Amino acid sequence: MRGVVAALDLRKNQQEDYKMIRTDTKQDDVMKDLIQWDKYTQLSKVFRYPDPDFVGDVNDLQQFLNAYDVEIGNEFKPFSGFVEDASLSELEEVFTRSFDVQAITTLDIGYILFGDDYKRAELLVNLNREHVEAKVNCGDELPDHLVNILKLLPEMEDKSIVPDLVSKLLQPALRKMIAEFEPSRLERKNKVYKKHHKTMIERSEAYGLTYQYPLKVLYALLVQDFGESKEEEKLKKSDFLNSIDTEMEIEEE
Asked: How many CB atoms lie within 10 A of CB 180?
């Protein structure tokens, strides 16, 4: 994981060691030609806070996925079906319950992997530079927010760094995020939230877990384009996950 931060930092210093993390120019060109980068821009819109354009963006993505890969398109349908039938307030509520308040997980990739460790601070600095160079507006979110990273991928002129970003940042973080939607973890997590909050935000039994589907779709697309990272994750749990697990253990004693 440290390699991603170092790789980004090498771009700033223009060091000779940068050659060690580059693919050659021909491989880079092939990757640019084979990958439909715009799908990641489309996917980024799914993970932003819902607005009046949200339904149209999700429908556009569903149509794209249906044509791109039938199996992946089918994986996305539970989410797009919910979005089509839901009101804007319901969409906002599900998003908030999934990622913001009494959340299932978070969309801040660096925080999922590093918590408040200094490594996240380094990552934020280097990602911010990449966003500035690519002219990607991060809006109100930090550079390691999933939306901003997905917007960054198509805009990076030097695509040689993308496989490292995917294998060492995005894929490990997505595996952790998807795992948080497992019923057993949710049940235990809700016990913790009930202990610390006077009021629990209701979660729809039918649609409360619906964001697992676009997360799984994103993971599947990244595996198609870059292969699946098999390296062992030797990371300390982030503060977000560690605090929940600690509370879970206390509750079970």
From this structure: 21
CA pair distance 143, 120, nearest whole angstrom: 11
Query: Mutual orientation of helices 212-226 and 38-46 as an angle, nearest 10°?
Result: 160
All residues at 6 or more sequence positions from 93 whose CB lies less than 8 Å from its CB, including other chains: 201
Domain definitions of the chain by residue range: 2-252
Contacts of 25 (CB under 8 A, 6+ apart): none
pTM for the full predicted model: 0.79
CA 23, chain centre distance (Å):
25
Higher-pLDDT residue of 155, 201: 155
Cα–Cα distance between 18 and 9 in angstroms, integer? 9
Q: Measured between alpha carbons, how far is residue 174 from residues 23, 27, 211 in Å? A: 25, 26, 12
Q: State the pLDDT at residue 103.
A: 80
Residue 31, both tokens: 């990757």
8 A C-beta contact, residue 62 and residue 193? no
Can you list the alpha helix ranges (DSSP code H) found in 69-144? Answer: 70-85, 88-99, 109-114, 118-134
The number of beta carbons lying within 10 Å of the beta carbon of residue 105 is: 24
Tokens of 42: 């489309």
Host H or E run for residue 174: helix 171-179
Rounded to whole angstroms, the Cα distance separating 120 from 173 reads: 13
Number of residues in the chain:
253
Contact 185, 179 (CB under 8 A): yes
- Higher local confidence (pLDDT), 191 or 244: 191
